[in-house]
Amino acid sequence: MRIQMQIFMILGIALCLISAAHADQANAVYYNPPYTPSACYQNQDRGNMVTGVSDALWNGGAACGKQYRVRCIGATNTAPHPCHDGASVVVTVVDYCRPQCNGTLNLSKDAFAVIADTDAGNVKVEFNQA
Ligand SMILES: *[C@@H]1O[C@H](CO)[C@@H](O)[C@H](O)[C@H]1NC(C)=O
Ligand SMILES: *[C@@H]1O[C@H](CO)[C@@H](O)[C@H](O)[C@H]1NC(C)=O
What we know:
The protein is α/β, with parallel strands linked by helices and 130 residues long. The protein has one domain (24-129): RlpA-like domain (Barwin-like endoglucanases), CATH 2.40.40. It contains 3 helices and 6 strands; from the N terminus they run H-E-E-H-E-E-E-H-E. A 6-stranded mixed barrel has the order 1-5-2-4-3-6. The N and C termini lie far apart (42 Å). Bound molecules: 2-acetamido-2-deoxy-beta-D-glucopyranose (NAG) (2 copies). The site of one 2-acetamido-2-deoxy-beta-D-glucopyranose has 2 residues, from loops. One 2-acetamido-2-deoxy-beta-D-glucopyranose binds next to loops.
């Protein structure tokens, strides 16, 4: 019985690694509305499901308008269970997050609230281009 359990665990870990391989991981923080003006679209309103990205993704502004599906995968601080399990949100890149931005993704509060408790402030996420 114990050996079977171990095999299951190893299989589980392997499956996790395989499915995670397609997604990038980052930290995410959030900011409060209003979400304009933005670095990409100035005063043009692109809705509430938007994000700022830091240098790794910004690519000199080429990131503007790209859409990412983002999912919370864990805590970065003391908040024990910040993630809304199974939830994901699609956000549009509208802004640049400066180097002091600790998260690669600076989500709008509306987008962050879909995938995690805003009380946590900062969570680990997984994302794919949508
Ligand atoms: C997130 O974006 C907002 C709006 O551009 C900005 O004020 C805030 O400083 C950013 N957060 C971080 C951690 O850089
Ligand atoms: C970024 O992280 C550093 C070190 O982890 C911390 O001292 C700083 O307060 C953080 N800045 C923001 C905007 O969260």
